[in-house]
Amino acid sequence: MEWTREMKYRTFEDVSDELFKEMKKKVKHARWRQMYHIQPISGLLNDPNGLVYHEGLYHVFYQWHPFGAIHGMKYWYHVTSPDLVHFTDEGVAISPDTLFDSHGAYSGSAIVVDNEMKLVYTGNHRTKDWERVPYQVISTLKGNEDSEKKVFVKGAPNGYTEHFRDPKVWYDENTEYYYAVIGAQRVDKTGAIVVYQSKDFNHWELKGELKTDYSSFGYMWECPDYFNLDGKGVVLFCPQGIERKGDAFRNRYQSGYLLGHLDIKSLKFDHYQFEELDYGFDFYAPQTLKGAQEERILIGWMGLPETTYPTDKDGWAHCLTIPRVLSVQDNHLFQQPIKALQQLRHSKKREVLTINDDSLVLEEWKGTHYELLIDVLDNQASHFHIDIRQSGDEYTRCSYDAKARSFTFDRSLSGALPEGVDGTTRVVQLSNALDHMQIFVDTSSVELFLNGGQYVFSSRIFPNASSDGIRIVSENGNVTFDITKYNLKEG
Ligand code: FRU
């Protein structure tokens, strides 16, 4: 289908109830629907927005285009949860219903101020000549809907283009100021982060640009985030326009972090080098929040812009990642699946297995929704592979090369493939031998956590439903695994 501009920017006022009902029905029965991931009831989901924990409930919002798998008019969709595992559908939270968000309520964050939930986002406006004007907006969530939209920055400040969006706000107890970091493009077409501050949350002033060592690193930085963790300052952002460097930076756009120390007064950020957050095929625009135990939790979009996915034809696209808890170890960010996900576990199986230069199909272990925990007790093999979602010639391969100490995620033979993606493997060099893997499999995704969350791979796969086998292969020697599998039930 050819998407005209008119089709892309339809709102609920332009689409009949019957038509939307039909869209939802088609999606409900589509193959590849996930079991325990947040996914759209119809249309396209992208960035997680407004993550916040308030009065015992987690609020997760996301970018949503309701009418087909295309980036068009964006709404904020809202779900809530006591544990980030079981979710209640709250429907639309922000509709693009004013002049300043006439072409989409774009990404942003949430914060509780005086016991009110404030949603802080970018209104995307296009003029008649299709020129983009970004507005930074604060809206108050009352019940399930937002109200009182107030613009606090109109357009982009001097020195920046109209690519100016995705405010992430926080309160700093030391300075007693609210801050907002905003993703920006300088007029010389390089990416940056711009900081605003406010004493009372109503009046905001431009503070300046975050000063990093990356003065020319891509043409736009989207979705910035800033927080303190384990004594370090952490800046997350998504630079666009970074060239591939060997096995690094292979996705269309990158998502990574800088770890260091921020002097909030001068905005000088001293940091280590940029690192990717995730080594899989499908990860972008993550956002973090402080959880019930003050832990730092991250949720990402398991998708990328400008890529055609096999579900598009079924009228829906994308999901969010499972939530992960962050920690700093040896000046790197580690990510581990939140413990609450253990509530989904059932039907445990456990075995200690040795395979010698052989291939073993775990006949009793079939499945399409499960968690695998694998301890590598001893490895004399040059390579080993864990094949999941396997049957006949179809499988998704997780491979370890012991000599090179490299790990490869291979979806060449996984089934249907997204289009517009560079290659079918993703590789990372590990700093230590691989000794632990935690693998989450859902109908159409795989999330891998290696060596206690030091390396994470998030990827969509689109296999046949009947590809449900698990196979283990060792090459040139013995490998002994302690393997546990839990089936996972619906979230
Ligand atoms: C990132 C992004 C944001 C923007 C939103 C629009 O994926 O491009 O920069 O606010 O998506 O949906």
UniProtKB/TrEMBL annotation:
All residue ranges annotated as the Glycosyl hydrolase family 32 C-terminal domain in the record: 341-482
Keywords, in A-Z order: Carbohydrate metabolism, Cytoplasm, Glycosidase, Hydrolase
Subcellular location as annotated: Cytoplasm
Keyword NAD: no
Catalytic activity: Hydrolysis of terminal non-reducing beta-D-fructofuranoside residues in beta-D-fructofuranosides
EC number, UniProt record: 3.2.1.26
One Pfam family per UniProt: Glyco_hydro_32N
Glycosyl hydrolase family 32 N-terminal domain sequence ranges: 37-337
PROSITE patterns named in the record: GLYCOSYL_HYDROL_F32
Bilayer-crossing regions: none
Any GO molecular function: beta-fructofuranosidase activity
Main location, first listed in the record: cytoplasm
Pathway in which the depicted protein is active: Glycan biosynthesis; sucrose metabolism
Primary role: Enables the bacterium to metabolize sucrose as a sole carbon source.
Family: Belongs to the glycosyl hydrolase 32 family.
Protein's UniProt name: Sucrose-6-phosphate hydrolase
Natural source organism: Staphylococcus felis
